[in-house]
C-alpha cells in the first residue's frame, strides 16, 4: 500500500511539473459564407478587412469589383482533406483562374480593338457567372494555436500549405484565384476581441487530472442477499487519476486573456483504494476485518468549468489479494459520481 501511495504521489508530481510548462492548445474555427471574409486576409499593419483584386485594393465606390472580390474572399478558404475534391469548388476555382487570365491578356498594349472587345466580353460573361455562384455554407474547420495581439485573437493554423495535393493528415490552404497576396498574413487569422464580455472559441485537447469518488453504487453482487447489514453502496473516499479527450469552448476577454473554460470530456479512470474485507461483505468467509489494496478501473463522462470537473463514471474494483475473490462485489460493475481537477492538458 505504501509503495502504491509513493507511486501515485510521483505521478502527481510529474504531471504538476508538466503543467508548469507552456502547452499549446488546439483551437478550431469554422468559417462560413457569411463570416469568412472577416476571418481571412487581414492587413498586416491594420488588421482590417481589405478587398483585394489583381494586386490592388478595391475602393468602396467600385461596386462591381467589390462584388466580385467579396465572392472571391468568401470562397478563399481552408479545406480539410475531405473537401479538396469537391467538384463545385474545383469548378469555381477554374472560373476564377480563367477570369484572371483574361484580365492579364487585356493588359497587353499590343491588342487591337476587336481583340480587346472579344476578351472583355468573355471576362464580363465570366464575372456575371461568378456573381451567381453560391459559396458553400461551410468551408471546413481550421485548427491551430491562438495568441493575443492588438485587440485580436490570432489563430496560427497547423501545417499550412498552398498545395492542392491531397496529403493525408494535413490541412490545406487553397488559393481559389491567381496572384500573390502581398502585404497579407496567410498563416494567421484574426478574430476581433469584444470590448465587453468574452469571445468564445471552440477547442479540443487531452487532459490528465486527479479525482475523488466518494460514492459508488454496485449494480450486482455474488451474494445471495445483500440485506442484513450488507448493502450495495460504498461511501469510502477513493482517489484516482483520469486521462481523456475534452472538447468545448475557451472564453477570452477584451485583452485576449483566457478567463473561462467550459468543457466536456470522455475519460479513462485508474486508481487504488483500501478495501476492508469482513464477515458481512464476504458472506461469512472472512471472519475478522482484513485490509487489502484494490485496483479501480473505469470510464467516465465529465463536465468541467475552469479545470474543476464533475465526473459520472462506471467501472469495476479488483482487490489485489488472495482473499479478494471472496468479496461479494469482486469484478462487479459500479456506477458513481466524483469530483476532480484537470492538472494539465495537451494536444
User: What's the helix count?
Assistant: 5
Could you give the order of the helices and strands? HEHEEHEHHEEEEEEEEEEE
Strand fraction equals 35-45%
| Strand order in space, largest sheet | 9-11-12-13-14-15
Helical content (DSSP H or I, runs of 4+): 10-25%
State the low-pLDDT regions, or none.
Answer: 15-23, 31-85, 135-140, 159-187
Please provide the count of β strands.
15
Structural class: alpha+beta
- Which term fits the overall shape? elongated
| Cα-to-Cα separation, first versus last residue | 34 Å
Largest pleated sheet: 6 strands, antiparallel, barrel
**Integer count of domains:** 2
Overall mean pLDDT score? Answer: 68
Q: Radius of gyration, Cα only, in angstroms? A: 30 Å
List keywords for this structure.
347 residues; alpha+beta; 2 domains; 6-stranded antiparallel β-barrel; two-stranded antiparallel ribbon; 15 strands; DUF5320 domain-containing protein; signal
Structure description:
The chain has 347 residues and is of the alpha+beta class. The protein has two domains: 2-26 and 198-346, no CATH class; 31-192, no CATH class. The protein has helices at 2-20, 36-39, 63-74, 87-106, 113-132; strands spanning 26-29, 52-53, 56-57, 78-79, 142-149, 152-157, 172-173, 189-192, 199-218, 233-234, 238-252, 258-277, 290-305, 308-319, 334-346. Strands 9-11-12-13-14-15 form a six-stranded antiparallel β-barrel. The protein has a two-stranded antiparallel sheet with strand order 2-3. β11 (238-252) and β12 (258-277) form a beta hairpin. α4 (87-106) runs antiparallel to α5. The longest helix is centred in the N-terminal third of the chain and has 20 residues, at 87-106. The protein starts with a helix and ends with a strand.
Amino acid at each position: 500500500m505504501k509503495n502504491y501511495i509513493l507511486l501515485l504521489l510521483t505521478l502527481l508530481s510529474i504531471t504538476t511539473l508538466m503543467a508548469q510548462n507552456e502547452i499549446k492548445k488546439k483551437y478550431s474555427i469554422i468559417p462560413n459564407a457569411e463570416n469568412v471574409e472577416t476571418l481571412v486576409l487581414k492587413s498586416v499593419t491594420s488588421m482590417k478587412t481589405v478587398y483585394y483584386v489583381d494586386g490592388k485594393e478595391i475602393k468602396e465606390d467600385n461596386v462591381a469589383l467589390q462584388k466580385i472580390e467579396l465572392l472571391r474572399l468568401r470562397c478563399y478558404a481552408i479545406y480539410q482533406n475531405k473537401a479538396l475534391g469537391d467538384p463545385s469548388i474545383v469548378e469555381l476555382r477554374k472560373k476564377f483562374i480563367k477570369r484572371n487570365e483574361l484580365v492579364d491578356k487585356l493588359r497587353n498594349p499590343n491588342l487591337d480593338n476587336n481583340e480587346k472587345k472579344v476578351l472583355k466580353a468573355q471576362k464580363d460573361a465570366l464575372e456575371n457567372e461568378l456573381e451567381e455562384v453560391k459559396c458553400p455554407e461551410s468551408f471546413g474547420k481550421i485548427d491551430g494555436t491562438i495568441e493575443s495581439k492588438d485587440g485580436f485573437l490570432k489563430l496560427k493554423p497547423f501545417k499550412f500549405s498552398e498545395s492542392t495535393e491531397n496529403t493525408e493528415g494535413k490541412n490545406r490552404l487553397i488559393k481559389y484565384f491567381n496572384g500573390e497576396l502581398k502585404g497579407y498574413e496567410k498563416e494567421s487569422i484574426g478574430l476581433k476581441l469584444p470590448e465587453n464580455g468574452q469571445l468564445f472559441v471552440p477547442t479540443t485537447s487531452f487532459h490528465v487530472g486527479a479525482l475523488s469518488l466518494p460514492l459508488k453504487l454496485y449494480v450486482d453482487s455474488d451474494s445471495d442477499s445483500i440485506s442484513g447489514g450488507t448493502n450495495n453502496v460504498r461511501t469510502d473516499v477513493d482517489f484516482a487519476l483520469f486521462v481523456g479527450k475534452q472538447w468545448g469552448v475557451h472564453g477570452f476577454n477584451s485583452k485576449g486573456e483566457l478567463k473561462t473554460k467550459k468543457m466536456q470530456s470522455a475519460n479513462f479512470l485508474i486508481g487504488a483504494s483500501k478495501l476492508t474485507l469482513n464477515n458481512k461483505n464476504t458472506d461469512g468467509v472472512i471472519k475478522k476485518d482484513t485490509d487489502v489494496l484494490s485496483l479501480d478501473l473505469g470510464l467516465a463522462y465529465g463536465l468541467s468549468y475552469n479545470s474543476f470537473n464533475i465526473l459520472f463514471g462506471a467501472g469495476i474494483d479488483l482487490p489485489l489479494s488472495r482473499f479478494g475473490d471472496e468479496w461479494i462485489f469482486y469484478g462487479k460493475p459500479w456506477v458513481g459520481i466524483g469530483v476532480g481537477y484537470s492538472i494539465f492538458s495537451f494536444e
